[in-house]
Amino acid sequence: MTTASAHDQKMLNAEMACPMRVEEVDLFAPGSQEHWYDSYSLLHQQSPVLRIPGGGKTPGTDAYVITKYADISRIIRDPEAFPPSQLRQASDEATEIFRDTGYGTPADARESLRPDLESHKQHRLQLTDPWVGPVGADQHADMIRAQVDTLLEGWEHRTGAELVTEFAQPLPQRVITTTLGLPLEDMPKLKAFEEAQVRRFVYFINHKDELPPAEEVENAQALVEFQQYLKEQADEKRRNPGNDMLTFLTQVDYEGRKLTDAEIVSVAFGMHIGGNETTQFALTSEWLLLAQNPAVWAELKRDRSKVRFFVEEALRVYAPTQGSSSRLVARDVEFQGVKIPAGSLLHVRYGAGNRDEEAFPQADSIDLARPNPGRHLTFSQGPRNCPGAGLSRLEQNLAVHGWLDRFESIGLDEEKNTYRHIPGRMFGLVDLHVTFKPANASR
Ligand code: HEM
């Protein structure tokens, strides 16, 4: 299992001054996450396409950070002109560990199950949509409500809590663990596996999500342990089938055949990495925004039909996945007057596109009446967008309803909060100390 290395500690403790000039912007420097939104304003005004010299996928090529909504949307909707970059391939040594002792690298699994757009579509339609897609996720509504109830039990006798550890982190963990059909008592072990899964997004050394070489190996070992755990769980489902996603994956007839163990492990692996921290960060931001905007809280109390609009606005204002170096340039192209040669790597910055005033007037504010609120970039767009958006949206909506049901008002413990964010390319508060007044409390 992974432990915090000196590199991780350095990233966690880093401080960085707020950039005042566009030349000072570095979205990937340790500590930069505390100033991303100031950086985006500078970039939008002066450098909406930012070149990272030598930052491409192959030697001699560059990377470009794209921050305008329209440019990002065009890129992610056009997989022919901007194919996936298939980054995050493990180092040679780590690849050997995955192949010799585990079930292949995450890239191997992609190659086997969804090498092209059509197989990607079928993968989604047949394997993940029925469980976590926009319609399939609905079957989990009662389960999610029950998890919200469990986590908020006893809060009517309290006045404060630490939201991340007591609610925002365990809710998505419990939901994805139950959806997959893994034992809830394994959650501490699963949490450690999850940390290994997201480590390269949090403690990377560059925009390509690379870890220090020695840690690539250590991380591969931890992830192989997770793969072996998932394989054992799949075997258990074959012996004792249940009504859960892992059982389904062991039984499904996919394109005229059964899935291999490596394929089952890879689908479950993807659900686990996608289903945890992103939603945790969204839930934490939602409480923060509601506490900071009492008029929005009051409006939601008056009219519950607006909760879903609030959730979309919160996802837009604080995108949990701020960006990814996930697309390549197939042919020479130009964005915002900057010529980008074929072969370049694109870092699409969803968090910046979501605050682009040209796309969203008064982009920094929550507007419950904003037209088409779901058109933000937070789950990406186009054929490769997030397959778990349905499940995540449902969790967030039911969590906000749960808070509205129980609390008269909510707030923040200003003495305890530091409002520090995790490093990397995700946007999430390290912790959030909250206060609340139960709905039935005498005033
Ligand atoms: C607020 C919560 C979430 C956010 C912000 C988020 C965001 C994203 C983004 C931006 C992508 C990249 C898409 C692209 O490259 O075009 C992605 C992919 C993915 N997400 Fe999510 N996600 C969330 C929740 C979930 C959940 C709940 C699951 C699973 C239950 C999930 C599973 C995945 C998977 C498996 C992929 C990879 C898709 C592929 O390559 O085929 N995500 N997500």
Intertermini distance = 49 Å
Bound heterogens, unique:
protoporphyrin IX containing FE
Instruction: List the total number of helices.
Output: 18
Q: What is the name of the CATH superfamily?
A: Cytochrome P450
Low-confidence stretches at least 5 residues in length (pLDDT < 50)? Answer: none
Task: Spell out the helices and strands N to C.
Answer: HHEEHHHHHEHHHHHHHHHEEEEHHEE
Structural class per helix/strand content? Answer: alpha+beta
Gyration radius, to the nearest Å?
22 Å
Number of strands: 9
CATH fold-level label: Cytochrome p450
Quaternary structure classification: single chain
Strand percent estimate: 5-15%
**In percent, how helical is the residue content?**
40-55%
Notable features of this structure?
9 strands, binds protoporphyrin IX containing FE, alpha+beta, Cytochrome p450, 18 helices, globular, four-stranded mixed β-sheet, single chain, 9% strand, three-stranded antiparallel β-sheet, 443 residues
Verbal overview:
The chain is α+β, with helices and mostly antiparallel strands and 443 residues long. It has a single domain (6-438), classed as Cytochrome P450 (Cytochrome p450), CATH 1.10.630.10. Helix content is 48%, strand content 9%. The protein has helices at residues 6-13, 36-46, 69-77, 92-101, 106-113, 117-132, 141-152, 163-168, 170-180, 187-202, 213-239, 245-251, 261-274, 277-292, 294-302, 307-317, 350-353, 389-406; strands at residues 49-52, 63-66, 160-162, 324-328, 333-335, 338-340, 345-348, 407-412, 433-438. Strands 1-2-7-4 form a four-stranded mixed β-sheet. A three-stranded antiparallel β-sheet has the order 3-9-8. Strands 5-6 form a two-stranded antiparallel sheet. Strand 5 (333-335) and strand 6 form a beta hairpin. Helix 5 packs across helix 13 (261-274) and helix 11 packs across helix 13. The longest helix is centred in the middle third of the chain and has 27 residues, at 213-239. The protein is globular, with a radius of gyration of 22 Å. The structure holds protoporphyrin IX containing FE. Protoporphyrin IX containing FE binds at residues 76, 132, 176, 270-271, 274-275, 278-279, 282, 320-321, 326, 378-380, 384-388, 391-392.
